[in-house]
């Protein structure tokens, strides 16, 4: 049986939470046990990474990473080139959310 969640897709960090009836909100942990996941995407050699691993790549100067793309959502002429492909902020957000969902499901043993 699946669970329903709310996702805060933040410019810097994102979080996934579940409302637990009578107990309030439970922020679910990601694949490294953290409640908040850096909203960073890395696409390199066809491999997609998100979160802390992608943030580390970004900090190391990897040009195949994108951070702060959410703030550009809705800008028609804005795109980012990663690993030979062109991505809009909406594309990157979709990639990030898909990967984040998988991490949450695996770490918490749930189906979102």
Question: Mind explaining what this structure looks like?
Answer:
There is one protein chain. This protein is of the alpha+beta class and 112 residues long. It is 25% helix and 31% strand. It contains two helices and nine strands, in the order E-E-E-E-E-E-H-E-E-E-H. The chain has helices at 52-59, 89-108, and strands at 6-8, 13-20, 24-27, 37-38, 40-44, 47-50, 65-67, 80-82, 85-87. The strands form three sheets. Strands 1, 2, 3 and 4 form a four-stranded antiparallel beta sheet that branches. A three-stranded antiparallel beta sheet has the order 6-5-7, sandwiched between helices. A hairpin with a 2-residue loop joins strand 5 and strand 6. It is globular and about 45 Å long. The mean pLDDT is 95.
Q: What labels describe this entry?
A:
31% strand, four-stranded antiparallel sheet, 112 residues, three-stranded antiparallel sheet, 25% helix, alpha+beta, globular
């Amino acid at each position: 049986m699946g669970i329903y969640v709310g996702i805060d897709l933040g410019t810097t960090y994102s979080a996934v939470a579940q409302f637990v009836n009578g107990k309030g909100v439970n922020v679910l942990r990601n694949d490294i046990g953290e409640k908040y996941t850096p909203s960073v995407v890395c696409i390199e050699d066809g491999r997609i990474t998100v979160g802390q691993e992608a943030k580390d790549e970004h900090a190391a100067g990897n040009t195949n990473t994108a951070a702060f793309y959410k703030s550009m959502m809705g800008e028609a002429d804005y795109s980012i080139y990663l690993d030979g492909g062109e991505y809009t902020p909406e594309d990157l957000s979709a990639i990030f959310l898909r990967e984040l969902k998988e991490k949450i499901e695996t770490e918490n043993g749930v189906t979102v």
